[in-house]
From TrEMBL:
Pathway: Cofactor biosynthesis; Fe-Mo cofactor biosynthesis. The keyword Ligase does not apply. This protein may play a role in the biosynthesis of the prosthetic group of nitrogenase (FeMo cofactor). This is Nitrogenase iron-molybdenum cofactor biosynthesis protein NifE. It comes from Clostridium kluyveri (strain ATCC 8527 / DSM 555 / NBRC 12016 / NCIMB 10680 / K1). It holds the Pfam family Oxidored_nitro. GO terms for biological process: protein-containing complex assembly. Residues 42-436 form the Nitrogenase/oxidoreductase component domain. The gene is nifE3. Belongs to the NifD/NifK/NifE/NifN family.
Length: 444
């Protein structure tokens, strides 16, 4: 296929080829270039991704009805308890509210939610227009807390106030506000699990492994999370962070405020699941716990050995392109592909940090394209140039791959299979095999 796409001038420093004996100067962690049509969502959407999985919380979007379209149906996550989080409310601000202010409507909406649903906590999201007209969302939330004797937490997330990472930060600030100041708490022997949103049940896989080696979880933040558990989070002895891009900031805040140390972990792929389990066992337990973790790993690996060998034989020599939200997933996916005999030829993220890109440079081969905050044209250009057989991404990347006649794997909210841990590694290999080796490609 002919490749005529040019990278626009303002984007050139956000894209590079991996050249091993040369320093990589890739720009990242910046707002998207005007006119580049980034794949990123807005600040409010970033905040919603993080907070929405709290199962017994209520989400009130203070803004025009369009912002409220971003609901559980688009960003689903699973629950083992309350289904309350699947509801969504909006103050539906219109022209008159923009002129005269929307605070009255917000007060009315909170009153209505409390009367109908009795949630333990309401998150009130301030969207673009609220940032412009200057409604005092903080005061309204404070007054509502007094009036109803419950938690009403403002989430400062006007879409224009930065990029998606700012939304993650706004969500973390909201959770910290929910937990509140807890100077002296009695510690319990358990961990908090941060940055897994339980899209297809991953939290249950990971907490299941931890339970088997004798480690308790105090709070899941936020996948399958609950208000009562989250406010107990300061009692934990260790925070393990799956998606550091979204919750690394909160882990640092919790370390400062409650003295809880944290480690970055990943349960994407066999290698990373194994390393994470051993590391957690070492920090939280004793020799016995590490031994239990080793036995569990041996057992789980044996269970999937034949399946993995089968898929390796069918996938060896293929080429992958990766474009995902954060750095941790991109790094783990490269290792996972390597385990299947697949080389990664292009890798990018929406919100990766300099340290993530440094690791990506180290673990990819010379000539691999590395890019931050890409747009569809760039993804298309490099997938074609590098001859990728498959793209791994989210809902916005799916049509792009299919239009190019390239296989696709959803590693985001639309998927239905667990992709974490050892069983997740088999599900992933199976899905890659099904899509790459689908007979449909013979008809293109
Ligand atoms: S950019 Fe602003 S108006 Fe658009 S969805 Fe985000 S908060 Fe709403």
């Amino acid at each position: 296929m002919e490749n005529r796409v040019e990278i626009i001038e303002d984007r050139k420093e956000f894209v590079c080829y991996n050249i091993k004996n040369k320093d990589m100067k890739l720009r990242c962690e910046e707002n998207s270039a005007s006119g580049a049509v980034s794949q990123r969502a807005c600040v409010y959407c970033g905040a919603r991704v993080v907070l929405n999985p709290i199962t017994d919380a209520f989400h009130l979007i203070h803004g025009p009805i369009g912002c409220a379209a971003y609901t559980w149906d688009l960003r689903g996550s699973l629950t083992s308890g309350s289904e309350l989080f699947r509801n969504s409310f909006s103050t539906d601000l219109s022209e008159m509210d923009v002129v005269f202010g929307g605070e009255k409507k917000l007060v009315g909406a909170i009153d209505e939610i409390v009367k109908e649903f009795h949630p333990k906590v309401i998150f009130v999201y301030a969207t673009c227009i609220v940032g412009v007209i200057g409604d005092d969302v903080d005061s309204v939330c404070k007054m509502a807390e007094k009036k109803h004797s419950m938690r009403v937490i403002p989430v400062k997330s006007p879409g224009f106030s930065g990029n998606k990472s700012m939304g993650y930060r706004a969500a973390c600030d909201a959770i910290m506000k929910l937990i509140g100041e807890k100077k002296k708490v009695e510690k319990i022997h358990g961990i908090n699990y941060l940055g897994d949103f339980n899209l297809a049940g991953e939290v249950w896989v990971v907490t299941g492994y931890l339970k088997k080696i004798g480690i308790d979880v105090v709070a899941n933040i936020t996948g399958d999370g609950r208000y009562d558990d989250i406010i107990k989070a300061p009692q934990a002895k260790l925070n393990i962070v799956q998606c550091a891009g979204s919750m690394g900031y909160m882990a640092k805040q919790m370390e400062e405020s409650y003295g809880i140390p944290f480690i970055k972990t990943s349960f994407v792929g066999i290698e990373d699941s194994e390393n994470s389990l051993i590391q957690i066992a070492g920090l939280m337990g004793n020799e016995e716990t590490v031994k239990k973790a080793e036995e569990l790993i041996k057992f789980e690996k044996q269970k999937i050995k034949n399946d993995m060998n089968y898929y390796r034989s069918r996938l060896y020599g293929k080429k992958a392109a990766i474009y995902v939200g954060g750095g941790y997933k991109a790094i783990s996916l490269i290792r996972q592909f390597r385990d299947l005999g697949i080389e990664t030829v292009m890798v990018g993220t929406q919100t990766g940090k300099p340290e993530d890109y440094e690791v990506l440079k180290q673990i990819t081969k010379e000539g691999t394209v590395i890019l931050d905050d890409a747009n569809p044209s760039e993804l298309e250009k490099f997938m074609v140039e590098k001859g990728a057989d498959i793209l791994v991404g989210g809902v916005k990347e799916r049509p792009l791959a299919y239009k190019l006649g390239v296989a696709f794997c959803d590693h985001n909210h639309e998927r239905k299979h667990i992709l974490a841990g050892f069983e997740g590694a088999v599900n992933f290999a199976k899905e890659i095999d099904l899509t790459i080796n689908s007979p449909v490609w013979n008809y293109i």
